[in-house]
Specification:
homodimer; mainly alpha
């Protein structure tokens, strides 16, 4: 890779690393454990809300809000762990080649997590279901492009 | 195990599962991924503060606060993933046999994470270092009793 390409890549990556809380990693394995951990936590709380939205467990507004709060917090964390060179796990190389697209999808997911929390607070199970569906589509879209099968 | 012992165990475990946001797990593997994920995230943000407290990277109050906020949030999550039967990973069987001790240490860590956030907000690097040291001792004490080497 030439110097210009490296500079372009560094500039494209910078917004992902600018958050003050962004964890920093010296070893790719640590970054992989961190981002996979964040995904596991999101997934667990997302599924608990989905079970309520789909009627598999009784709907409870306080439980929905508490779970949405976790998702809304955790959703901001994994992206910093996809910094330059932090390859491994199920991450496709496309993440580092298509940074604007990756950033667009991660930003979209963060926005949708905020909307999910609003929906949970509304107490309307229909709104919760819609917000979960929107988020699920973004998860799938990003995984289709950037996660190994 | 007899019925009485099971009831006692269930009663001892109940406080760990009572938080409304507590993720619920049907498979031990999911619980293991969740709690290991939470530990990885805590560890990454803890180390970033430790690097500042030890002078390996420049101290920055806003960065310390942002990292302490993540630790203070995440520290509440892993315990629900040590529910009955959720064995595996590095967890020793003692976790399920000595629930009061496990709960005492996890409660202590949560309290110390709150104190860490106060220390980070103080802007005093000495307070930050002390709070990190206190938390580190509790981590080690719990790992010595309940984590496989």
């Amino acid at each position: 890779m030439n110097r210009l390409a490296l500079l372009v890549l560094a500039a494209a990556s910078a917004p992902l690393l600018s958050a003050p809380a962004a964890a920093q990693f010296t070893k790719p394995d640590d970054a992989v454990a961190y981002r996979q951990g964040a995904m596991s936590i999101q997934d667990a709380h997302f599924r608990r809300m989905a079970a309520m939205a789909n009627g598999r467990v009784p709907y409870d507004q306080a439980t929905a809000v508490a779970n949405a709060e976790v998702v809304d917090f955790i959703v901001k964390l994994p992206w910093a762990a996809f910094g330059p060179g932090m390859v491994g796990g199920d991450a496709k190389p496309e993440i580092w080649k298509e940074q604007p697209k990756f950033k667009e999808l991660s930003d979209k997911l963060e926005t949708q997590a905020g909307q999910l929390l609003v929906a949970a607070k509304s107490g309307d199970v229909g709104q919760l279901k819609t917000a979960l569906g929107d988020m699920d589509e973004t998860c799938k879209s990003c995984h289709d492009s950037f996660r190994k099968k």
